[in-house]
Design brief:
The structure holds two protein chains of two kinds. By secondary structure, chain A is α/β, with parallel strands linked by helices. Chain A contains eleven helices and 14 strands. Chain A has two domains: 125 residues, Rossmann fold (3-Layer(aba) Sandwich); 189 residues, Response regulator (Rossmann fold, 3-Layer(aba) Sandwich), CATH 3.40.50.2300. In chain A, strands 2-1-3-4-5-11 form a six-stranded parallel beta sheet, with helices on both faces. A six-stranded mixed beta sheet of chain A has the order 7-6-8-9-10-12, sandwiched between helices. In chain A, strand 8, helix 8 and strand 9 form a beta-alpha-beta unit. By secondary structure, chain B is mostly helical. Chain B has a two-stranded antiparallel ribbon with strand order 1-2. The longest helix of chain B is centred in the N-terminal third of the chain and has 27 residues. The two termini of chain B are 15 Å apart. Classes of the chains: A alpha/beta, B mainly alpha.
């Protein structure tokens, strides 16, 4: 009990002693970003940084941005976030799941600074908001393309970790591939990493050797595309997180291994939230936006995709963007054959966010 | 002509002076590097070395953080230095650190949500045992089969990292964590939390243990027969054998000690600053501690100072990124320079620089 009291006193003391500079900060509004990778990673962190740059561009001198790259999750991130709050940041975006507890811990000590945590679910204090994007909407589109493009009727998915986010992507990808091509089979390979080019390439190679000819990745590097490229036009893949346009066309002008991509575009969200902070309409939220809001974008499709498939994909994109189609619309059964969604029924967000089951037709088990 | 002439004895003066010279050289060449990327060198060096200690806005927070960052480095480096003195090259402290955290956290979590003042001490013992046991693998293999402890201990780091990934998303996963990898937050469970002993000072049990380890290591190496045996084994293995020192006992003692200290460091980290067992828990302390041990000349007091200096470059480096917008890679380069110069000027300890024409050998 004594320890707890001491902790509370310490937190209060820290706030009194150190909270002041943040409050004293006037214009411009300072937006700070904590990145898990280097800004040149070409994927996850790169896209967040593009969002930060777009924010700067939008508001010019009214906004000042600062960032720190390659911040390890855990103890180091808590210190980095605290230093940002001390340095006068008005709003701090922490852009990786592992920053969840540190973000909430620091938020408790700086009630006047706004904290925005990406991909987490803890909002323990009124100044903590969370934001994520509906990537499964993008998976639906590439799933449809994969179902149409496969010659061997075997498509692949490189999973990072068996968490709801990834399970959701697998289900959406498979469901739409199956709608496009009832013969399709899905192979899932777990890489147990978010970013490790060597492991990602190994996972892609293992699937290609099994006869899989269309692969999507839930990891961040371009290594799977490079591996797929070695098949010389008999296998295809997708850009993940960023456009990965370098793989769109081969040097000889033929279509490259990247036939389309799922792009995370965080700029609309960053511009909206900092704008709200400046005009006083900012409130705590749990944001989960997707293709309608422009946060999930399908990158340009290359010429490996036949025109009729392109047109179908465009129509699917349009129907998701207008909100008339939800990628999880019944009838869909669970893997064990039990009913999940009835005809015309759409999935609830709560079910998706805790998704721990495959849908009917996927073989294999979710690890653990 | 510049010649190097081997000294009959390593120079006492240069042993002390070379680390300082290395830091000065790092400041000069680091300053040039910052200048080349368009940052004021003076401002960059000041931000890294001065601001964490004296900046009016940050210092109240970053001074305690120096202890938090230096604590595990010192604790691990002390253990390693004892082995290095004896010529036992344990490169796998990172693995021992991870295993200590896993075993210690598992021992505590098995009792969750019981509340007892005995849980944290139990976890500390379990953490030390976890690290000790992991270090015993290269130890026993070396004693029984003559394997190379450098390779075995290093390879076991990768094994430990995979065990960490497995338990984070398996047996130790937080049942209330919505399926995400990572254990319950040990810093938020009052029975297991390792908080600052005096709030706001950064002085948690791990830092205190590091200071105690410095004192005990000093006593061991200078006042105890086992310390003499260790130094003798390193400097003159044959003489040590004639003096009746059993090499196997020295090997197991040194590896076991280093493993136990690294395991404790892991446990203190997982119950305090890190808070949970997660896939990214291993943050390289075990490897950085090797640098700290050598930067501190394998001397306990030197290690204490080296650990604090290393922590300063980390925290100062973070401030420089935030305040001056220098890229993260430039900070790593800066730290690399420090190690490079340290190893480079080491030549002055063992060699004398002679100018003028050399005699023909």
């Amino acid at each position: 009990m004594i320890r707890r009291t001491l902790l509370a006193t310490a937190a209060a003391g820290l706030t009194l002693a150190l909270g002041a500079p943040a409050m004293a900060q006037d214009d411009p509004t300072k937006a700070c970003f904590v990145y898990v990778g280097p800004i040149g990673d070409g994927g996850w962190t790169y896209q967040h940084h593009q969002g930060a740059l777009a924010l700067q561009e939008e508001y010019g001198d009214a906004v000042e941005i600062a960032y720190q790259e390659s911040v390890p999750e855990g103890a180091d991130s808590e210190r980095v976030i605290t230093q940002m709050a001390l340095s006068g940041c008005d709003i701090i975006f922490t852009t990786s799941f592992g920053y969840m507890d540190p973000t909430n811990n620091v938020a408790a000590k700086f009630p006047d600074v706004k904290f925005e945590h990406s991909t987490g679910y803890k909002r323990e204090h009124p100044n903590v908001s969370t934001y994520n994007a509906r990537f499964y909407e993008g998976r639906a589109v590439v799933g449809h393309i994969a179902g149409k493009m496969t010659e061997t009727n075997k498509i692949g998915y490189i999973g990072s970790f068996p968490i709801p986010e990834v399970i959701m992507g697998i289900n959406s990808y498979y469901h739409h591939a199956k709608l496009a091509n009832p013969e399709v089979e899905l192979v899932v390979t777990w890489a147990y990493t978010w970013f490790d080019p060597a492991k990602e390439a190994d996972a892609a190679r293992a699937m290609l050797d099994q006869g899989v000819d269309v692969i999507t990745a839930h990891t961040d590097s371009t290594a799977p595309l490079a591996e797929i490229g070695k098949e010389d036009g008999s296998a295809w893949g997708f850009g993940q997180a960023s456009d990965m346009a370098a793989f769109m066309t081969n040097e000889d002008g033929t279509p490259g291994p990247r036939i389309a991509s799922i792009i995370d575009d965080w700029s609309p969200y960053y511009i909206k939230r900092v704008g709200q902070l400046m005009d006083g309409t900012y409130e705590q939220i749990d944001s989960w936006a997707g293709m309608p809001e422009g946060e999930v974008v399908i990158g340009e499709m290359n010429d490996a995709i036949p025109d009729d498939v392109k047109a179908e994909a465009e129509a699917l994109i349009a129907s998701i963007e207008t909100g008339e189609y939800h990628p999880f619309t019944g009838p869909i059964n669970k893997q064990d054959g039990s009913a999940w969604l009835a005809e015309g029924e759409t999935a609830k967000d709560g079910t998706l966010l805790g998704m721990d089951f495959y849908i009917e037709g996927i073989t294999g088990d979710i690890p653990n | 002509m510049i010649r190097l002439e081997k000294r009959p004895q390593p120079s006492k003066t240069w042993t002390v002076a070379t680390p300082i010279l290395a830091v000065v050289l790092t400041m000069i060449f680091g300053g040039i590097m910052f200048g080349l990327i368009g940052t004021s060198p003076v401002e960059a060096i000041r931000t890294i070395f001065w601001d964490p200690l004296f900046h009016p806005q940050f210092a109240n927070f970053s001074r305690p953080q120096l202890l938090v960052k230096a604590g595990p480095l010192i604790l691990i480096a002390i253990g390693l230095s004892i082995g290095f003195r004896a010529g036992i090259w344990n490169i796998g402290a990172e693995g021992q650190y991870i295993m200590g955290a896993i075993v210690g956290a598992a021992a505590g979590l098995a009792l969750y949500p019981m509340e007892s003042a005995l849980i944290l001490p139990l976890m500390i013992v379990a953490g030390a045992l976890g690290g000790w046991a992991w270090a015993m693998i290269p130890g026993l293999l070396k004693v029984k089969f003559g394997t190379n402890e450098i390779l075995v201990s290093l390879m076991l780091v990768y094994v430990a990292e995979n065990i960490l990934a497995s338990v984070s998303s398996g047996v130790l996963r937080n049942p209330e964590g919505m399926g995400f990898p990572g254990s319950r937050n040990l810093a938020q469970w009052s029975s297991s939390q390792n908080l600052d002993l005096i709030p706001g000072t950064g002085m948690h049990l791990g830092v205190l243990s590091a200071f105690i380890a410095v004192i005990l290591a000093y006593v061991l190496l200078t006042r105890h027969i086992q310390g003499f045996n260790i130094r003798l084994s390193g400097q003159a293995p044959r003489a040590a054998k004639f003096a009746g020192v059993a090499p196997a006992r020295i090997i197991l003692f040194c590896l076991g000690m280093a493993g136990a200290l690294a395991g404790m460091a892991g446990l203190f980290e997982v119950t305090g600053p890190a808070g949970q067992v997660s896939i990214d828990f291993g943050s390289g302390y075990g490897f950085t501690a090797i640098i700290v041990a050598f930067l501190g000349r394998l001397h306990p007091v030197g290690i204490l100072l080296a650990g604090l200096l290393m922590a300063l470059t980390y925290i100062g480096g973070e401030l420089a990124q935030l305040m001056l917008g220098v890229p993260g890679a430039s900070i790593q380069l800066f730290q690399g320079m420090l190690l490079f110069f340290l190893l480079g000027v080491d030549v002055l300890t063992n060699y004398r620089v002679r100018f003028g024409a050399g005699e023909v050998a």
